[in-house]
Amino acid sequence: MTKINTPKKKILIAAYAISPYSGSEFGVGWNFVSKLSAFYDITVLYGTSGVCMGNHEAMLQYRQNNPDDGVNYVYVEPNRLVRLFDWMNRSITPLFFSFSYMLWQRQVLATARKMQANENYSLVHQLNTIGFRHPGFLWKLDLPFVWGPVGGSSNLNDIFFPILGKGNFLRHKLRNWTNSYFLQYSARVKNAAMAAKAIFSATSADRDNLQHFLHVDCQIIRENSLLNLRETIKPTGAEVQFVWAGRIDELKALNLVLSALAHLSGRQDWRLHVIGDGPCKAVLQAQSTALKLDERIIWHGQVPREQVLDIMREADVHVMPSMMDSNPTVLLEAFEMGLPSIALDQFGARDLITAETGFKVTLNTVEGIIEQMADHMAFCLNNHAALDHMKTNVLQRQAELHWDVTIRQVRDIYEKVTHE
Description:
It comes from Janthinobacterium kumbetense. By secondary structure, the protein is α/β, with parallel strands linked by helices.
């Protein structure tokens, strides 16, 4: 009996940022597109693979080295007006990004309309950027429209404003206000939500906001997932190895970790590995000296990703008190390395960490956060067997957070909307 090969469905995806060599939004675009291409005939419209809009040298290099990877990459070149606003975004204020991105998305719509005339697409998917304020315009096509992962709708908690510098204070006060405005009054956001056959959100908080303000149903599908799974744990030694990784800036809140460690009553059975660099590094190193923590802290600086993973692989507990992160890559890397995490009970950490795989810190007061973190660290120092059991639980949870699960969820959405 002759086997009949069914042609793959043609999917049109808008991924403003995409690159196999970078993380963040670039990694979101790359991971979804590359993994979905195993099941669908993917055409992706993109605008950058580098440091600014219009910089696509990384994708040109990739395409030269991999001409037959099965994906049709279509670069939508920003016009002069778009480039002007993007220059203003980089040179004057990031507030201009919305203008440049909106105008570029209009170019994407025009490009998609021309392509639609010659191709039989099954659906169109607005993939990234994931911020809910930027849904693009592909919902105007006569195609089933999928939007997600949608994120960025959560606000910075009010308890943190008193400890912020003036710049971040004003920036996030404005961001909180504009978040509320866009959720309630943005016609573009409402039109996209109403037109969508399916929407999926990056976190449960984003899902709740979309349901409350836009009156839409959506499921949670993270923008990042696990790829490499660790098979065995590293038993905790006499000295518990804590690790913090990220850009050393105000919002990553490494200062809270240092304050918590100062509560450990001069104990010598721990060490903190700090990975990264940033504008607050010198201030925090001075804080470490003032708190008499220097002998217990290793400042690794900015190191290659492979070295980051090597350091995390030898650690015992990941600490992430970030005030403002959705689904940070470093938290998922901790899961890949089999590490329990101590993190604030908000955003992606709330969804990812369970009582069996880490410690979620309640947001009550800044002082309360520091005390809770200190208590969790002390627990790790005093209960090595329980900590090792938690590491085993992390390994068991890895399968639930794997990219295979994420792509299966997206495929289910694709199949549902194309059969309606």
